[in-house]
């Protein structure tokens, strides 16, 4: 467990001056940020409930500068937190008070597009959406599409193994990356993966996915591209209760259909969205499903008809099918804007991310509603239903004493529920600091010990993003004791001055 290291403001200033002086020797002055105002934008990621000011932030512009920053970190034994766009929802890019915040924002070039190989080499700071935009004139696109794709970086996508609406059919980030170039804390440049379908040796490319900045810093990513489908259409199906919508999801997949996307939103979410983006959702429905089909015109027509039949048989009260590309995009615009829309109806919201077997959707949704009543906190559901990837959004007000703590306890119960039904505590947002306690429930001590061994093999001194993702066994013992008493541990338990 990371000791909480309290030191005086004077000692902090002295340490900051020492690190900054060393960094200023290897980076341009403007790329080293020290002032409180300059550091403020980095104090949290998308999980804004937790904030910390880094000791110093750096914005290097090439590989040599990153290597130099890591050298300074090594020599001064200073922790380093890599940061892409800071949209992560589990506190992965949360700075450490005694650490260097390493922004990859200047690594923003698409280096090469290889049309024949259907691949693109991009720097880690390039946004997800820009990749597809850049290759669109070639009739290609990059399939994984997190709802944050306008802002999130491909480096962050790899580090979180991000998902998105289209990952049901096309796979997560890990399935769409051919090669990743990383730099280790020792300063070694290593290429993971290859252009071939398989490679001998351990699959270190897969290991890099979801590594959350703990193993190495990603410097370049080779993404796989797909031909843009000839046609795509979306069904919007209404349901009188969330349970039957959950059962319809299992029935669609059970019927042998693999939609390009299969998403669910409950009434609280659709109402928030309608007021925000006017996507044309059914406001009387307790839940809606959005199911997309893509492929040739014939494939789409056939699949849409089949999905419509299955949904009607599962109790859909209304079915609408997009009749134009504009309408298809409008249906999706609501789903993509759901988080900010929910943000408009509550001072704060907390997005949970757990995965469950699809067959358990109805049960977990019912239990979540019961927990919502128990904790006295509203909860909206917007999620990748086809993947069984839940995103309950708990609405709370951080200014009301005790509400954040109640929210954390509610979130912890949902994650424990995911484990209990055979699922996992993350579908795509990673563990970060947010779910570190539930890692203790998900994994046995021997399994956590293996994770620590992997971390130590890459980063023996534990300088890359320490305190995130993998809990210490000591922490797990404390968490176990707290759960027995019916509480949740306070967050975050990170090194701090
Ligand atoms: C409105 C909203 C919607 C979202 N929707 C989705 C969704 O549909 N699907 C989904 O999967 N996620 C979603 N997210 C979460 C988030 O966008 C993803 O996790 C995304 O991949 C984070 O990318 P980022 O560039 O912002 O990374 P950051 O938040 O900056 O960092 C995330 C983690 O990656 C590490 N990291 C970043 N860059 C590097 C690098 N170059 N080398 C090593 N480590 C690095 C960081 O240390 C940190 O641990 C959403 C977030 C928001 C705010």
Structure in words:
This protein is of the alpha+beta class and 497 residues long. Helices cover 37% and strands 19% of the residues. The protein contains 17 helices and 20 strands. The protein has helices spanning 9-26, 36-39, 63-76, 128-135, 154-160, 167-170, 204-208, 242-254, 267-277, 297-313, 325-336, 338-344, 361-375, 403-420, 439-442, 445-458, 473-484; strands spanning 32-33, 56-58, 80-83, 100-103, 110-114, 119-122, 140-141, 177-183, 189-193, 217-224, 226-227, 231-239, 261-266, 287-295, 318-321, 348-351, 354-355, 379-383, 389-390, 392-396. The strands form five sheets. A seven-stranded antiparallel sheet has the order 15-12-14-13-18-20-16, with helices on both faces. Strands 5-6-10-8-9 form a five-stranded antiparallel sheet. Strand 5 (110-114) and strand 6 form a beta hairpin. Helix 8 runs antiparallel to helix 13 (361-375). The protein starts with 8 loop residues before the first helix and ends in a 13-residue tail after the last helix. Mean pLDDT is 93; it is low at 487-497. Residues 45-46, 81-89, 92-93, 104, 124, 146-148, 152-153, 155-157, 159-160, 162-164, 212-213, 217-218, 339, 428-429, 465 line the site of flavin-adenine dinucleotide.
Query: Sheet bearing the most strands, described?
Result: 7 strands, antiparallel
Cα radius of gyration in angstroms: 23 Å
Q: Ligands bound here?
A: flavin-adenine dinucleotide
Our count of helices gives: 17
Structural class estimated from helices and strands: alpha+beta
Query: What does the oligomeric state look like here?
Result: single chain
Q: Give helix % range.
A: 25-40%
- Kindly, what is the distance between the CA atoms of the first and last residues, rounded to a whole number of angstroms? 16 Å
Question: What fraction of the residues are assigned to beta strands by DSSP?
Answer: 15-25%
Q: Biggest sheet: strands side by side, in what order?
A: 15-12-14-13-18-20-16
- Overall, the morphology is globular
Question: How many β-strand stretches?
Answer: 20
The overall average pLDDT, rounded, is: 93
Low-confidence stretches: 487-497
